[in-house]
Write a structure and sequence with these properties.
53% of the residues lie in helices and 12% in strands. The chain is of the alpha/beta class. Strands 1, 2, 3, 4, 5, 6, 7 and 8 form an eight-stranded mixed beta sheet that branches. It is globular and about 75 Å long. The termini are far apart.
Length: 337
């Protein structure tokens, strides 16, 4: 297999389409800050929305990014090869994964360190799992181990990234991405030479937790969380209902046409969502349908339309088809409470 930092024509060819579908999975993406292109850099975002989180990090910079993911999804060799092509490595946990998968962590850490030495950024969701809440789970130790190992050989920085969604479950919501100040791992370790390895890891974990909490709309995960969230939602209502209804009425003819054009796609997406237990994965399913379904049905509709209709009518319908999947969900968001 090729190395993660090697140029890959297929990866570069498909990447713009993936980025396009990511951007058009949201009504608005607000990005504050910039991600570095050089050096040994570790991206550390919060994690609330499954695959959509790494897709947003990926499209924020032109170059490739190496990602860590849970080890159990690598168990089938075919899937493992696809994930390798996508620049994703397995990270196992003692509490969740098989002993042999945990044992392979050392080799994975070596791969990550080599990637960092070649200037390929590594992204790790340092909470260890996703959760749809405006809070943070404790930062796990893996990021500290990776960061300090890299810092032994080169200058290394951690970039905290806050990702805030207006809605985790409805497709075509809004998202805000805020890049925090770089955390200099070498300077952090040098200033704490009195600490042991475990204490130094814990200090880095706590520092990163603190920085991430400042980059998102953060509510402490305690007994007052629900009340705090309710107060915030009451103070920030979701637009004026009369205006939304008026927009929905005016846009209904366009919605109807787009709903028909994109029917096979959104019907499949919503069927998949009905089968998903963890609803945080629903927008991932909708994204996947857009990614694969748009070029497929563009070809199908082109054949049918140009066979049955005048060329100008066929061309018009094809142009309407391209944004139809997004228009369908935008209209639904107008009429939802």
């Amino acid at each position: 297999m090729s190395e993660f930092w090697d140029y890959n024509f297929a990866y570069s060819f498909f990447r713009p389409w993936v980025d396009f579908c990511t951007r058009h999975s949201y009504r608005r993406i607000e990005f504050k800050g910039s991600l570095p292109d050089k050096g040994a850099v570790i991206f550390a975002p919060n994690h609330t929305n499954t695959l959509m989180d790494p897709l947003l990090v990926l499209q924020a910079r032109k170059g490739g990014t190496l990602f860590g993911a849970r080890a159990d999804i690598f168990r089938k060799p075919f899937i493992a090869r696809i994930l390798h092509f996508l620049k994703i490595v397995p990270l196992a946990r003692h509490s969740r994964d098989l002993p042999e998968e945990v044992a392979r962590n050392k080799g994975t850490f070596d791969q990550i360190d080599r990637a960092l030495s070649h200037g390929l950024p590594f992204c790790i969701f340092c909470e260890g799992t996703h959760r749809t809440m405006h809070s943070l789970l404790p930062v796990r130790r893996g990021i500290a181990r990776i960061a300090f190992t890299s810092a032994e050989h080169r200058h290394t920085t951690i970039i905290p990234i806050g990702i805030d969604y207006s809605d985790w479950f409805h497709y075509r919501s809004c998202v805000k991405i805020q890049v925090g100040a770089p955390l200099d791992v070498n300077a952090f370790a040098k200033a704490r030479t009195d600490l042991g390895i475990d204490e130094l890891d814990a200090a880095l974990q706590q520092e990163l937790y603190s920085r991430l909490s400042e980059l998102i709309f953060f509510l402490p995960d305690d007994e007052n969380y629900s009340a705090g969230l309710a107060r915030y939602q009451a103070a920030h209502p979701r637009g004026h209902r009369v205006r939304r209804v008026f927009q929905a009425i005016l846009g209904f003819p366009l919605f109807l046409v787009c709903a028909l054009l994109s029917l096979p796609m959104w019907a499949l997406a919503e069927y998949l969502c009905s089968r998903i237990k963890d609803k945080a994965f629903c927008n991932t399913a909708r994204f996947g349908v857009k990614l694969l379904g748009t070029p497929l049905f563009l070809v199908i509709w082109a054949i049918l339309f140009f066979s049955l209709l005048p060329w100008w009518a066929a061309l018009l319908l094809l142009l309407l088809f391209l944004p139809s999947y997004s228009v369908f969900y935008d209209w639904l968001n107008l009429v939802r409470r």
